[in-house]
């Protein structure tokens, strides 16, 4: 199946009992057994649910993996992935990751004995110099949140695996989605998603996923998924599956709109710097064009007026809603230092308080540009 077809059909056959074309929401906690210990593939809904199975199969197909596992949130998926490691293990991670990922690493897993080094994973030499005999995981987010920095997935996979067969390379593919970039095909061991974002696509469900190829990893992760129990409910799985059906068409329009927004901001006199992977000013634009099908829907920028101006602009838009999260059909604006990345404050990962992040939605781009124009124009100080 081609990607667009898989989005609509992978893991989803019409319901054998009723012929329902859409995957039913199997709203059940348990399943009847034909005899003691003789069930029909499902015994308890924490362990498995047919709506979840459909989502997991679909996610696996989209990433080109052998298995997919769905979780109650992106953070639950990240936490479950880290359970593959033990206290004392070393993890090398991007120094520009989602604030919640940093909080989990720094405030939950580090006190539990895991050792994290934060490096600029866009710089191969830096990664090379920080690999250690006890390194067990290389954690990437590309494009990163919120600076939209890129890491070269295939070069880093080669580097890490050549250094040691015991290093798992994990890519958080939330910003790009499998439509723009497929980390497993580029050499990663596991792919991580907050399906809350582009996969769900409508800001109406929270979820997460892990996808991979290795059957042993599948066994261990599925064990943790069941043993820990941070699983999504069937309604959440249904909503995510429904969102995925339109992923390619949404991503194309997100990218078209975001590219126009980036072009507009790049020449605006009040904007100091614009960050967008496909924009000619992006320092890794060549890598972006090689690794990603398009630049995606996220744009970040800083203002000549600094932090106060960033807050003022974020509070002045009318169409761009001032809200956390991203990847929905509607446009959102936020100031990461005070919102999504507040947990990085006072750390080496602290985000510039003058940075504004946009999740560019599917509205008419002229309306979006007009909204940004009026928000930027309000201030007369520059
Ligand atoms: C890149 C990235 N990874 C993971 C997460 C966590 O996902 P969730 O909010 O679904 O737990 C987020 C949330 O914003 C994110 O942006």
Describe this structure in words.
With 382 residues, the protein is α/β, with parallel strands linked by helices. It is 36% helix and 15% strand. Bound molecules: pyridoxal-5'-phosphate. Pyridoxal-5'-phosphate binds next to helix 3 and helix 4.
Short description:
This protein is an alpha/beta fold. The protein contains 13 helices and twelve strands.
Q: Beta-strand percentage? A: 15-25%
Q: What is the approximate shape?
A: globular
- Return Rg in Å: 21 Å
* Strand-pairing-aware structural class: alpha/beta
The number of distinct helices, counting runs of at least 4 residues, comes to 13
Task: State the major sheet.
Answer: 7 strands, mixed
- Strand segment count: 12
The hetero molecules present are: pyridoxal-5'-phosphate
List the helices and strands in order. Answer: HHEHEHEHEHEHEEHHHEHEHEEEH
User: Span between N and C termini?
Assistant: 54 Å
Helical content, roughly?
25-40%
Q: What is the residue-averaged pLDDT?
A: 96
Which stretches of 5+ consecutive residues score pLDDT under 50? none
Q: Reading side by side through the largest sheet, how are the strands ordered?
A: 1-7-6-5-4-2-3
């Amino acid at each position: 199946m081609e990607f667009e077809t898989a989005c609509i059909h992978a893991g989803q056959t019409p319901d054998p009992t009723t012929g329902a074309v859409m995957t039913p929401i199997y709203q059940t906690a348990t399943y009847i057994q034909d005899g003691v210990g003789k069930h029909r593939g499902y015994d308890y809904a924490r362990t498995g649910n047919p709506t979840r199975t459909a989502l997991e199969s679909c996610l696996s197909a989209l990433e080109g993996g052998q298995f997919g596992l769905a979780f109650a949130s992106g953070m639950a998926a990240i936490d479950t992935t880290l359970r593959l490691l033990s206290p004392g293990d070393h993890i090398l991670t991007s120094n520009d990751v989602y604030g919640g990922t940093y909080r989990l690493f720094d405030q939950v897993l580090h006190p539990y004995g895991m050792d994290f080094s934060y490096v600029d994973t866009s710089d191969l030499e830096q990664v090379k110099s920080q690999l250690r005999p006890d390194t067990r995981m290389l954690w990437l987010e590309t494009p990163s949140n919120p600076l939209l920095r890129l890491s070269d997935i295939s070069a880093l996979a080669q580097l890490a695996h050549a250094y040691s067969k015991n290093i798992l390379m994990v890519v958080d593919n939330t910003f790009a989605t499998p439509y723009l970039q497929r980390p497993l095909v580029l050499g990663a061991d596991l792919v991580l998603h907050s399906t809350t974002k582009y996969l769900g696509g409508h800001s109406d469900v929270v979820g997460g996923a892990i996808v991979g190829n290795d059957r042993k990893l599948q066994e261990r992760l599925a064990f943790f998924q069941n043993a820990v129990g941070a699983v999504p409910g069937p309604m959440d799985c249904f909503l995510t599956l429904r969102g995925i059906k339109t992923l390619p068409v949404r991503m194309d329009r997100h990218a078209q709109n975001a590219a126009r927004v980036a072009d507009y901001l790049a020449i605006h006199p009040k904007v100091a710097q614009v960050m967008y992977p496909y924009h000619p000013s992006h320092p890794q634009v060549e890598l972006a064009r090689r690794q990603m099908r398009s630049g995606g829907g996220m744009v970040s920028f800083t203002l000549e007026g600094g932090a106060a101006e960033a807050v003022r602009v974020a509070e002045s838009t009318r169409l761009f809603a001032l809200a956390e999260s991203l990847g929905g059909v509607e446009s959102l604006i936020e100031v990461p230092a005070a919102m999504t990345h507040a947990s990085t404050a006072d750390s080496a990962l602290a985000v510039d308080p003058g940075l504004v992040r946009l999740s560019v939605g599917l509205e008419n781009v002229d309306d979006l540009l007009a909204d940004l124009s009026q928000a930027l124009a309000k201030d007369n100080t520059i």
